[in-house]
């Protein structure tokens, strides 16, 4: 097996990659749509079966199953390289029918085309190349998860387990619009808080009421005040609801909080401040509860992760990606879980795209092959 065999074969598979990408983009796979997420998984399993690659499902009752596939030389007991990614999207049922996969002016469009079904297709074809030509210097493990867009409630323990067992992790989230990869990310916590007040007629019996919405307003102001842009800490109450009618003091209100932070040490301090705000009654007679709904941890570049990036960067230069750099992202990803367990990790290795989570999401079609080649060369030299 030579580097040229691998890179030439990947170049020859551009249309096959596009065809597989079309198939999986045209299947709705919102995070809570287990049937759809598993249907996308089945399409990848069909590819593995057609190419003789061993695979298995790790089932989950509530979310999509985790898909595992392995490419290894017989008898190898070395730690594998982990190629990882998620197949769920933020889009609801019917979106794929409304906006099916299309290509126009060198860009592909459709729900999840960049984030991150193209990255999964790339991972699958890189692994297939090594399977076809006799295996890589180290075993390759593919992990295709199901619920990243909601904080990986079922996949996190799977990711952490596989991350601990790996020698290196490549997470193929979309390449940045700049063409860069991601070497650092914020951590994020997604929370829900619920406030109980007391209903009363707001005209005839106002004094007897206790407004949960009034309490909500106080809490939002206090929570937003925790934002510290210089430290990369942001708080956003992005969803609110509550009340019974316009002429009733609100007996109930709720909100959802998005916390982002850079330094792992800031988590405990900010969470303690949020918990204090939730426990404080600014409107006497109200009470409140706080629930964490999902959480990501930061990607902090270790010395080993820096060395992994430099090796990848050298491989990328060989296939013409001469300006590729590492970039920090305020977004969260599953790569934080593998970085946190101490495994060298880089993210954003997928084909280049942008405007994720919007109807305008796009993928640069001509980035698919060189990004696949760069990943393959990085694995060969790892």
TrEMBL record:
<keyword id="KW-0378">Hydrolase</keyword>
<dbReference type="InterPro" id="IPR001261">
    <property type="entry name" value="ArgE/DapE_CS"/>
</dbReference>
<dbReference type="InterPro" id="IPR002933">
    <property type="entry name" value="Peptidase_M20"/>
</dbReference>
<dbReference type="InterPro" id="IPR011650">
    <property type="entry name" value="Peptidase_M20_dimer"/>
</dbReference>
<protein>
    <submittedName>
        <fullName>Carboxypeptidase G2</fullName>
    </submittedName>
</protein>
<dbReference type="InterPro" id="IPR036264">
    <property type="entry name" value="Bact_exopeptidase_dim_dom"/>
</dbReference>
<keyword id="KW-0121">Carboxypeptidase</keyword>
<feature type="active site">
    <location>
        <position position="88"/>
    </location>
</feature>
<feature type="active site" description="Proton acceptor">
    <location>
        <position position="148"/>
    </location>
</feature>
<dbReference type="GO" id="GO:0046872">
    <property type="term" value="F:metal ion binding"/>
</dbReference>
<keyword id="KW-0479">Metal-binding</keyword>
<dbReference type="InterPro" id="IPR017150">
    <property type="entry name" value="Pept_M20_glutamate_carboxypep"/>
</dbReference>
<feature type="domain" description="Peptidase M20 dimerisation">
    <location>
        <begin position="183"/>
        <end position="285"/>
    </location>
</feature>
<dbReference type="InterPro" id="IPR050072">
    <property type="entry name" value="Peptidase_M20A"/>
</dbReference>
<keyword id="KW-0862">Zinc</keyword>
<keyword id="KW-0645">Protease</keyword>
<dbReference type="Pfam" id="PF07687">
    <property type="entry name" value="M20_dimer"/>
</dbReference>
<dbReference type="GO" id="GO:0004180">
    <property type="term" value="F:carboxypeptidase activity"/>
</dbReference>
<dbReference type="Pfam" id="PF01546">
    <property type="entry name" value="Peptidase_M20"/>
</dbReference>
């Amino acid at each position: 097996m030579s580097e040229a065999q691998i890179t030439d074969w990947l170049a020859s598979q551009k249309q096959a990659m596009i065809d597989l990408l079309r198939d999986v983009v045209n299947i709705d796979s919102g995070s809570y749509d287990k049937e759809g997420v598993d249907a996308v998984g089945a399409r990848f399993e069909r590819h593995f079966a057609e190419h003789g690659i061993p695979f298995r499902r790790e089932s989950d009752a509530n979310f999509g199953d985790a898909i595992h596939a392995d490419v290894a030389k017989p008898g190898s007991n070395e730690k594998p390289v982990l190629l990882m990614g998620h197949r769920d999207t933020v889009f609801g049922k019917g979106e794929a029918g409304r906006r099916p996969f299309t290509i126009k002016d060198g860009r592909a469009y459709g729900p999840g085309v960049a984030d991150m079904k193209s990255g999964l297709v790339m991972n699958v074809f890189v692994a297939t190349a090594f399977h076809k030509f006799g295996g890589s210097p180290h075993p390759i493990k593919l992990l295709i998860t199901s619920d990243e867009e909601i904080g990986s409630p079922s996949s996190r323990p799977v990711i952490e387990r596989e991350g601990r067992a790996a020698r290196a992790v490549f997470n193929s989230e979309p390449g940045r619009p700049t063409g860069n990869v991601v070497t650092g990310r914020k951590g994020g916590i997604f929370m829900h808080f619920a406030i109980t007040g007391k209903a009363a007629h707001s005209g005839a019996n106002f004094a007897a009421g206790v407004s949960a919405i009034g309490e909500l307003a106080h809490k939002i102001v206090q929570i937003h005040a925790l934002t510290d842009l210089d430290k990369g800490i942001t708080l956003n109450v992005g969803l609110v609801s509550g009340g019974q009618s316009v002429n009733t003091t609100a007996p109930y209100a709720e909100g959802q909080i998005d916390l982002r932070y850079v330094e792992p040490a800031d988590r405990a301090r900010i969470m303690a401040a949020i918990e204090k705000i939730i426990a404080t009654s600014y409107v006497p007679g109200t009470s409140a509860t706080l629930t964490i709904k999902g959480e990501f941890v930061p990607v902090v570049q270790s010395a080993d992760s820096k060395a992994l990036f430099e090796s990848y960067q050298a491989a990328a230069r060989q296939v013409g990606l001469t300006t590729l750099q590492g970039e920090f992202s305020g977004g969260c990803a599953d790569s934080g879980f593998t970085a946190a367990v101490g495994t060298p990790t880089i993210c954003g290795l997928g084909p280049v795209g942008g405007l994720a989570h919007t109807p305008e999401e796009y993928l640069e079609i001509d980035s698919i092959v060189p990004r696949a080649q760069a990943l393959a060369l990085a694995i060969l030299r790892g």
